[in-house]
Specification:
Elements (H helix, E strand, L loop, with lengths): L2 E4 L7 E4 L1 H17 L9 H17 L3 H11 L2 H30 L6 H41 L13 H12 L3
Antiparallel strand pairs: 1-2
């Protein structure tokens, strides 16, 4: 089986991609996305993951996540706050474990068995930190998806009876308002 994709260089405007090639492309895309959901621009994977969330919010709604977040946080229901705080706390716990790994690594300079503890702590800390930060970024995006419209209504950019998704022009207006014309 193959999929048709638009192409400008064919008379019908489509190109047929063999199933095996399409499967290979999808597998490579999934492998790339496990490393980073977008081209890395930050010093760490963690920064890139949070930046990817901010970029998706900007693309979908025209919102500056950095300007929006403190205000959105104020109106989130308790259940959402608890879930986000839990993911944040998990990331903090992973960071503390990484600090222990660094301490064991220093101790390994004088006592080699500490290097095993350092490696173990570092591996677990990395895994937990990535999982926690991925969850945190997803929850932040979800909070914007679910409650961004409510915030726009509360600040008067949308009438209470309006329906539909948050439009990019409304998001641009929110960002401009929250940045206070920096």
């Amino acid at each position: 089986m193959s999929r048709a994709h638009p192409a400008a260089d064919t008379p019908s405007g489509t190109v047929t991609v063999p199933h095996a090639l399409l499967a290979r492309i999808e597998a490579l895309t999934e492998a790339r996305d496990r490393v980073a959901p977008r081209e890395p621009v930050r010093p760490t994977w963690y920064g890139d993951r949070m930046q990817a969330a901010a970029d998706r919010v900007e693309t979908a709604y025209g919102l500056d996540l950095a300007a929006l977040w403190p205000r959105l946080w104020l109106i989130l229901p308790e259940t959402a706050v608890r879930q986000i705080q839990s993911a944040h706390d998990s990331f903090g716990a992973a960071a503390r474990l990484a600090a222990w790994a660094a301490g064991y690594a220093v101790l390994a300079c004088w006592w080699w068995p500490a290097s095993l503890a350092a490696l173990g702590c570092a591996a677990v800390a990395r895994s937990r930190a990535r999982t926690a930060l991925d969850a945190l970024a997803s929850l932040v995006e979800a909070a914007v998806d679910v409650h961004g419209r409510e915030l726009a209504t509360r600040i008067g950019l949308l009438p209470p009876e309006a329906s539909g998704r948050l439009a990019p022009d409304t998001g641009d207006g929110m960002s401009e308002l929250f940045r206070k014309a920096e």
